[in-house]
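ok trying this again, last paste got cut off
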Amino acid sequence: MSLSHHHIRTTVGTYLARHPHEREQLSVLLDALDRPGEDIASRSTFTGHVTCGAIVVDQLGRILHVLHVASGKVLVPGGHTEPTDDSLAAAALRELHEETGIPARAVAPWLGYETVPLVIDIHDIDAHPGKGEPAHQHFDLRFLFRLRTTEVSVVLQEEEVGGIEWRPVDRVTSPALREKLLKLPLRVEPETANASALIYNDRGEYLLHLRDYFPGQIWEPGMWSLLGGGREPQDATLEGTVRRELAEEAGLDLASLSPFGTEYASHDDGTTVPIAVYAGRWNGDPRELRLTEGVMLAWFAPDDLHRLRIADTTSDLVRRHAAGHPPMRSGPEAEPEEQRLASPHGTVPNIIGVHLYLERPDGTVLLGLRHPDSAFAPSTWHALAVH
């Protein structure tokens, strides 16, 4: 299945929120997204279609370029999307690997550009009668990555790539890309020492972690947050940080994690900490996990977040992800939700309350966190109670 128009539209919308002055020059892309029944992720859509590029920066601030055999032009690695691509950024990484042999693990998304392209360029492509391709346009979304190591093994895709070259920014071939790159401190490695996991299931719910209520001792006490933590010396990458934290906090091991974005969390003292967020799918039962930190784990739909004590930045992350990833299971295939029985006709309010005190043999007591809008004891842990 091709990348959805919803995912492309969300990505383009986020880009335009940063660069609103480019809306007019991207109007042809926006018009294409609005045309019904037209798949602009498919290379066979010749009214114009999406391509993705990888802007790779090495430790010296140089940009990777390849010589494309077909066009004879020197450009950053990139090409058409494929039905197997999970995202536009993933398409860029796949093209990087196919054209140069550089694997995705050898690069890291630039902080703040994990899911947002650095530049979107629209350019004309000449007709190719030999392939039955008329003249058309490419909507090229180029994502920014940092090379993690000084040693990479390059294996060129010889039928498409004639060579590679690392160019300083002032020799980048694309004027639009060169202009954007000149505004970034490319010789400085982004400073991120924290990472979190945005875990979602096929029903479109998100796994949240209720933190211990220890004010002054831990970050965001008593709030719902993402699992994760700070980078430690043994972590080779921030993905390694996420995986270690998931294992330590919940005994959880996800098959796949991909960079999604950056959350800028604010502490009580006014300091701001960037947190790299990695997204992964999991359909398990959080009650079966071995939780070593915090109070509990639970699934929440994006529409339920307003009921929780949760940071606005975390809510925004969840909703942004949900906008581009609709539930895979709905209707009869989804798990049935609990149905509230309507009160019998003629029921009137009463003042008799019943509390349930439930204690385990080990002395632990069952408590429920009351809704923040509750008239009695809002946002507090309390014995289960009802009229």
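PB: full thing came through this time. Residues 5-18 form the longest helix (14 residues).
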